[in-house]
Specification:
The protein has two domains: 140 residues, no CATH class; 144 residues, no CATH class. It is mostly helical. α3 runs antiparallel to α4 and α3 packs across α9. The radius of gyration is 20 Å and the shape is flat. The chain contains nine helices and no strands. It is 72% helix and 0% strand.
Length: 305
């Protein structure tokens, strides 16, 4: 039977994924400044949910729910101690940073660096909540069989997926998604864009790095199947391979559909799920030790103090 704190971590993780999708819809529908003020919207806490205001305010409502869940988990994690406490502190710090960046995005009228940082922190927060899920499992799972190269490869693959998500955010927020029109294998008549064409280089870098990320994910999954006989890592490895294939397909579909709202939002959602799967693979191979996530260092320092 799952402990209440573990169920709370699972609910928070699910709500965080919905928050990522809601944020993607805000950008895909160009609703980021539908409310020119923050935290109110046109001076109201509960404005009429119509048009683009629906997406922007809906995102804020989901964010408020996620922040509340995170605060509840952090309090429960503090009482439990250990990895759960560190996960709770990390998640709480990141969700507060995310809220601040969200407000600055609106108040400063969408500066590029803040927009990309907003996505970066959102995915780091998602990672911390996934770690919380693993840190609160009961009874504590037995360590998976030794799988040194699989652990290393899954960590590298998770970092690569995270970097690709940031590169995708840069593509989206610089409007480079259609810099090569709807072409896949050529851009301006050649595979390599002209040196002066910054947007074309941005989208082409995103496309090429996607192939490298896919290769890393497949390699990490294959090593997991070779080195671990445990069922959870194997299932996660299979899920990661499936998701990376879906993600590549959605990337192609996003370009061919000329950035259709549903398609680009699904692309972001699948990318976030891929990140969750690869990170979960790493955690399932290593167990919920405190050092699993480098972003937990401030929480460890606070706990030690």
């Amino acid at each position: 039977m799952r402990a209440p704190i573990h169920r709370l971590a699972l609910v928070t993780a699910g709500a965080t994924f919905l928050l990522v999708v809601a944020g993607g819809l805000v950008w895909a529908t160009e609703s980021a400044l539908a409310c020119p003020d923050w935290p109110l919207c046109h001076g109201e806490a509960f404005p009429k949910l119509s048009g683009r205001v629906f997406f922007e305010v809906g995102h804020r409502y989901v964010a408020a729910a996620v922040a509340t869940l995170t605060a509840l988990f952090s309090a429960a994690g503090w009482r439990r101690g250990g990895a759960a406490r560190r996960a709770g502190l990390t998640a709480l710090g990141l969700v507060l940073a995310q809220a601040l960046l969200g407000g600055l995005t609106v108040l400063l009228r969408l500066p590029l660096v803040i927009r990309v940082a907003h996505l970066a922190v959102s995915q780091a927060f998602f990672a911390s909540v996934i770690w919380a899920v693993f840190a609160t499992r009961e009874p504590a799972p037995r360590a998976a069989p030794a799988a040194g190269s699989a652990r290393a490869l899954s960590a590298v693959a998770a970092a690569a997926v995270y970097a690709q998500l940031l590169l995708g955010a840069f593509v989206r927020h610089t409007g480079a998604g259609l810099a090569c029109n709807a072409a896949i294998l050529s851009c301006g008549g050649s595979f390599w864009p002209a040196a002066a064409d910054g947007p074309a280089w941005t989208i082409r870098a995103h496309e090429l790095f996607a192939l490298a990320v896919a290769g890393l994910v497949v390699l990490a999954a294959s090593r997991t199947w070779r080195e671990s006989a445990a069922a959870p890592p194997r299932r996660l490895a299979a899920a990661a391979v499936l998701l990376v294939l879906v993600q590549v397909g959605l990337g192609l579909a996003s370009v061919l559909s000329y950035l259709d709202v549903a398609t680009v939002t699904a692309h972001l959602a699948a990318g976030s799920l891929l990140f969750a799967a690869v990170l979960s693979l790493r955690l399932s191979l290593a167990g919920p030790e405190a050092a699993a996530l480098p972003i937990a260092a401030p929480a460890r320092a606070l706990e030690a103090a």
